[in-house]
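Write out the 3D structure for:
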Amino acid sequence: MRNCDACGGSIKFVNGRIAKCEYCGRLFQVNGDNLSEVNLESLYKEAMGWFNRDSEDDVLNAIEIFDALGSYKDSSNKVYEGKNKISKARADETDRKLEEQRQNELAEIERKKREFKKKQKKKILLTF
């Protein structure tokens, strides 16, 4: 594990290519063994790009970056919004699956009713 050149604090990886000093909060771009300080605005814009996509993994990547940015602009609000966005998407997906299951069950009940009526009709015809 490397230490920050500015303060000597330990550097923790945020994701595969972004690292943050745990002491001073500086953000670094990871290129192999090299660390270079990151422009916060460009990192914020990149996170916004991830945030505006529909994929849960993309939003999670954005949340990691916003969390690392801390209080830069509205990053802390974006972390909250991202978590809500993911929760809502998961709830919507669960609702969709439950509705699909309900529709399948209703279709099965209708099929069984038709089958029962057909058997009843057959029984009545056979008794005459």
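The two ends are 90 Å apart (CA to CA).
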